[in-house]
Amino acid sequence: MNEFSKVLIANRGEIACRVARTLREMGIASVGVYHESDALSAQVTAVDEALLITGDTPVAAHLDADQIIAAAHAVGADAIHPGYGFLSENAAFAEAVQQAGLTFIGPDPASIRLMGDKIESRTFAASHGVPVAPSVLPTGDIDSFIAEAASIGFPLLVKASAGGGGKGMSIVREAADLAEQAHRAASEALRYFADGRVYAERYIDQPRHIEVQVFGDGQGKVIHLHERECSIQRRFQKIVEEAPAAGLPDALRAEICEAAVRLASAANYLNAGTVEFILAPDGAFYFLEMNTRLQVEHPVTEMITGLDLVRMQVEIAAGRGLSLAQDAVALDGHAIECRICAEDPTNGFLPETGRVLRLAAPTGDHVRFENGLTVGQAVTSDFDPMLAKLVVHGADRVLAAEQMVAALQDTVLLGVGTNIDYLAAVVAHPAFIAEELHTGFVDVHADSLVPADLDEAETSAVLLAALMGDTSYQRQVENYPEPYASMGHWRN
Question: What is the DSSP letter of 389?
Fold first, then answer.
């Protein structure tokens, strides 16, 4: 068993702060890495040590595996936690970490390779009785692939084998569009993932996106921590997640979770992972993919189970095994998470930039505000636009939704445009409350979700009100001397 004394966090922003928090609670020293563009961010002060990393771009710095491993050696770290994104699902990086004599806090490289390839993982899932949607795999000849894909019927979803985040993905509804979309998806896949392979599967209109959090010990023992609902998406990107899934029949819930455990067990899966499914309106569900890392939305699972998923990751990586039994996993209430992003919903969700001028969020046992922001920090287009995550827990889904709307309304983030009002409109929408959830939700209800623009006078009034409510500003005003006081003892 390897007991860690120091762990390097190979990430940034809110997830770096999140991992550092658990490490501190466990008595493990934390080391952070940062690009100079993040010098004022909270991640620098959230860790015990912070090392500057360099690169042609900020993202390139965080993708420099050799530099990160060298940094871990330089500070005497025992292990590396990759967070999510960047190098978290890079099998070569996980392998390099192990070869460097360090522990990778995540799955083994073989599992990352197997599940990271959408085609291989689908074949593996089907071979173990996990349902997959009718599909066509690449043949090496894009034209023959197009002909075979057309035989499945429409609509089709064309996807990059090595893809993620909605890249290299398109919906094809008519045969006349298939060739163009297939070539476009292959080109995009090659550009983003250096792998031009694409596959096609039957597209389910207005499906739900259900995922199951699993943990494995690498020896075939796997448990699930219930499921999450991730159906509220925009351009294939999740924006609202919740746990458990809304209105899911108990028998179907059990079947989906059992399928996830069966898949992970067959792969002798190690550490944390998420098995994702598409749920059709008729109740049929199909394997989508497996993410071999901690998910952005893991806090909703923590809220309903009372577990610390990062702690579990560290303990498994340290060789303590999986001590928690399936029947010991609790399910308490309902949790909802909203992703706060720097974008403008009134202008096609274009990314926003600026500088954080004011930051305040609601507090309480039922609220978590996960972020890596500090006042004065620049928000640029160098990284993903997600700035923070707001998470609430309630006794039931209705209460959780009400608390989320209130929490969003109480959240103040000035200096850069965000989607906070848009998220509040989503969660307060009658269709959301009525559990009418599917991946096309935001498109169907687009007209009633985007808030109207404030005119200049309204904007000024809102900013002034926020400033007047700032206690630090009030203290400055109250401590500023009256004009006559600066004149000394002279009087007219």
Answer: E
CA 172 from chain center: how many Å?
Answer: 27
CA 395 to the chain's CA centroid:
24
Active-site residue list:
293
Rounded Cα gap, residues 47 and 67, in angstroms: 19
Digits of tens for pLDDT over the chain (492 positions)? 578 999 999 999 999 999 999 999 999 999 999 999 999 999 999 999 999 999 999 999 999 999 999 999 999 999 999 999 999 999 999 999 999 999 999 999 999 999 988 889 999 999 999 999 888 877 667 778 788 888 888 899 888 877 666 667 788 998 888 888 888 888 888 877 778 788 888 889 999 999 999 999 999 899 999 999 999 999 889 999 999 999 999 999 999 999 999 999 999 999 999 999 999 999 999 999 999 999 999 999 999 999 999 999 999 999 999 989 999 999 999 999 999 999 999 999 999 999 999 999 999 999 999 999 999 999 999 999 999 999 999 999 999 999 999 999 999 999 999 999 999 999 999 999 999 999 999 999 999 998 666 556 655 655 565 556 555 545 544 554 444 333 333 333
Between CA 421 and CA 429 the distance in angstroms is 12
From CA 202, how far away is CA 241, in angstroms rounded?
25
How far is Cα 314 from Cα 22, in angstroms, rounded to an integer?
A: 9
CB 80 within 8 A of CB 88: no
Cβ atoms of residues 241 and 212 within 8 Å: no
Q: What angle do CA 166, 56, 168 make, to 5 degrees?
A: 15
- Which contiguous run of DSSP H or E holds residue 358? strand 358-360
Distances (CA, A) of 232 to 251, 282, 294, 437: 23, 19, 19, 7
User: Distance between CA 307 and CA 311 in Å, rounded?
Assistant: 8
Structure tokens at 261: 């455990």
CATH superfamily membership of 208-449: ATP-grasp fold, B domain (3.30.470.20)
Q: Report whether 389 contacts 337 (CB < 8 A).
A: yes
134-202: CATH number: 3.30.1490.20
Residue spans of alpha helices (H) in 220-346 = 250-266, 298-305, 309-317
Distance CA 107, CA 269 (A): 7
User: Which CATH code, of 3.40.50.2300, 3.40.50.20, 3.40.605.10, 3.30.450.150, is assigned to 6-105?
Assistant: 3.40.50.20
Residues 6+ apart with CB under 8 A from 75: 6, 8, 31, 49, 51
Q: In one letter, which amino acid is 245?
A: A
